[in-house]
């Protein structure tokens, strides 16, 4: 196993993903993990992440300096490289000129860490401090026009570092850096697969749950469905999957999901909470407030439902790694940064939750969840269903949510998705949905003036939802969808198409 010491970088998860992509087990831990804990994990390599902080701050996040004495190979990335310099006698200074974005690397092409990377290859930088002097015993073998020390190593002490970010896709040959470090320098054997994951997680859950019962919030999306089937396989009928009909789901979705799970021999309880969700959302237009209200109400319902069974002690959720990272900057403690959105299955949890959480997919990305789901025998209908956010259509109705707006959006969405499927385009898109805007525009129908709602169509391609590009749906398909929506959904007279990528936009509008 490889461990990543997380100093609060937004990209820590991308380091995890890079290592997992090389089929090596990996875990993110707090930057101040103790030496004893590291020794009990017994990792084959340690990676030090980047950070929004500076080692020159008054109280910078720093790891225990004894990690450099353990003899375990270390790779420092950006701030991680600066931590190494700081501790081992180098010098870090605030750079006069920040280096941010694409840069061409200069390298002698001989050292193992950058094997296969040539001068002129594009790397991605994001740092405002730089190393003025590398520690004694280290050698450098790479620079950029702005940075003298772009990489350094001390092979005798097994310590390596790069100033750039090999984990982001903008560094074209970034994965090669991890490959060189993990396979060639650390000599780690790749043996991590989704099957290993299932085996490991099964053992842990079986032990943790014991005789207790587990309630699970099922939405019918890939994440909660895979969680349900995985848990059902491990603990059987001790799992109680509850599908809360919030009234904010897609048209006919509740009935479809129930039918699919019945077909797999898994009974689900459907709780009709349509009225209370709408009541709770009455008069609320702020996106974060909506998310928090929905998250809280979900939990209230779970707790209430759980009380109907005698021995419920756990709440299972299909939380994925991107949900965790975007909801709380850092997966580990005490490294604050910016909350992008409160994903309802994390951000809305009340402090005093009476049930313990089980989140078996917490360290996986969507594409890995699909591989696990396939292994568990879930039908493609579920596995390749586009992701659907926990707060449902509420975050796709900009402004206040009302019953009428939900009905309108369900009709629009139904036509959109149906057309994508009929034109064999649904499977070529990662996620497609419609958004109802809080504005009316003027139109003309027959000889009459109309003044009705506008909806936006969004379709994106993505690997994990963390970055996304808008999908170039052929015009003829878009034309048909637009015509059908305007002609068939009373109350809509204009359709627009969203051509924003993430970042800087997000996938959902709220
Ligand atoms: P954003 O809008 O953050 O969305 O770019 C990234 C992916 O996450 C989905 N999403 C959610 N999923 N609970 C979820 O389970 C949520 O609260 C939530 N909010 C957004 C979104 O649909 C996209 O796939």
Question: How does this model look, in words?
Answer:
This protein has 510 residues and is of the alpha/beta class. The protein folds into 3 domains: 2-185, Class I glutamine amidotransferase (GATase) domain (Rossmann fold), CATH 3.40.50.880; 200-383, Rossmann fold (3-Layer(aba) Sandwich), CATH 3.40.50; 396-497, GMP Synthetase, Chain A, domain 3 (2-Layer Sandwich), CATH 3.30.300.10. 33% of the residues lie in helices and 24% in strands. It has 15 helices and 19 strands. The strands form 4 sheets. An 8-stranded mixed β-sheet has the order 2-1-3-4-10-9-8-6, sandwiched between helices. Strands 13-12-11-14-15 form a 5-stranded parallel β-sheet, sandwiched between helices. Strands 16, 17, 18 and 19 form a 4-stranded mixed β-sheet that branches. Strand 9 (151-154) and strand 10 form a beta hairpin. Helix 5 (194-209) crosses helix 12. The two termini are 37 Å apart. The relative contact order is 0.09. Residues 328-338 and 346-352 have low confidence and may be disordered. Xanthosine-5'-monophosphate (XMP) binds next to helix 10 and helix 11.
């Amino acid at each position: 196993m490889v461990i990543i010491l997380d100093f609060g970088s937004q990209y820590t998860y991308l380091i995890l993903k890079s290592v997992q992509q090389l089929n090596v087990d990996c875990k993110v831990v707090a930057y101040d993990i103790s030496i004893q804990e590291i020794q009990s994990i017994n990792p084959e390599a340690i990676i030090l992440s980047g950070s929004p902080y500076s080692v020159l701050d008054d109280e910078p996040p720093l790891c225990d300096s004894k990690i450099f004495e353990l003899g375990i190979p270390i790779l420092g990335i950006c701030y991680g490289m600066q931590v190494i310099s700081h501790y081992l006698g180098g010098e870090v200074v605030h750079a006069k000129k920040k280096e941010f974005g694409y840069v061409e690397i200069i390298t002698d092409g001989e050292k193992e860490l950058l094997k296969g990377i040539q001068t002129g290859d594009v790397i991605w930088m994001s740092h405002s401090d730089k190393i003025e002097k590398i520690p004694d015993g280290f050698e450098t073998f790479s620079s950029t026009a702005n940075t003298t020390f772009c990489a350094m190593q001390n092979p005798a002490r097994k310590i390596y570092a790069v100033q750039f970010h090999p984990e982001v896709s903008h560094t074209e040959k970034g994965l090669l850096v991890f490959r060189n470090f993990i396979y060639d320098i650390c000599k780690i054997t790749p043996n991590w697969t989704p099957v290993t994951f299932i085996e490991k997680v099964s053992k842990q859950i079986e032990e943790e749950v014991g005789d207790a019962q587990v309630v699970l919030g099922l939405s019918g999306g890939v994440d909660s469905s895979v969680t349900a089937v995985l848990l059902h396989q491990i603990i059987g009928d001790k799992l109680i999957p509850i599908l809360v009909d919030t009234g904010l789901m897609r048209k006919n979705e509740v009935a479809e999901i129930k039918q699919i799970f019945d077909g797999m021999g898994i009974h689900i309880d459907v709780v009709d909470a349509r009225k209370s969700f709408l009541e709770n959302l009455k008069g609320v237009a702020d996106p974060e407030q909506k998310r928090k209200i929905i998250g809280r109400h979900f939990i209230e319902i779970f707790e209430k439902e759980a009380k109907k069974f005698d021995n419920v002690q756990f709440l299972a959720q299909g939380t994925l790694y991107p949900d965790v990272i975007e909801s709380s900057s850092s997966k580990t403690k005490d490294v604050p940064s910016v909350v992008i959105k409160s994903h309802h299955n994390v951000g809305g949890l009340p402090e005093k939750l009476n049930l313990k959480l089980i989140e078996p997919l917490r360290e996986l990305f969507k594409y890995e969840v699909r591989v696990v789901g396939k292994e568990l025998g879930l039908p493609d209908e579920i596995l390749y269903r586009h992701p659907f956010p926990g707060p449902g259509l509420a975050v796709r109705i900009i402004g206040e949510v009302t019953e009428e707006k939900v009905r309108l959006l369900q009709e629009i969405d139904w036509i959109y998705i149906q057309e994508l499927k009929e034109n064999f385009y649904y499977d070529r898109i990662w996620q497609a949905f419609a958004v109802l805007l809080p504005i009316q525009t003027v139109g003309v129908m027959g000889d009459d003036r109309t003044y009705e709602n506008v909806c936006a169509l969004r379709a994106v391609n993505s690997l994990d939802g963390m970055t996304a590009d808008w999908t170039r749906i052929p015009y003829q398909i878009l034309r048909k969808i637009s015509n059908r929506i305007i002609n068939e959904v009373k109350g809509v007279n204009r359709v627009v198409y969203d051509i924003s990528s993430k970042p800087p936009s997000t996938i959902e509008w709220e």
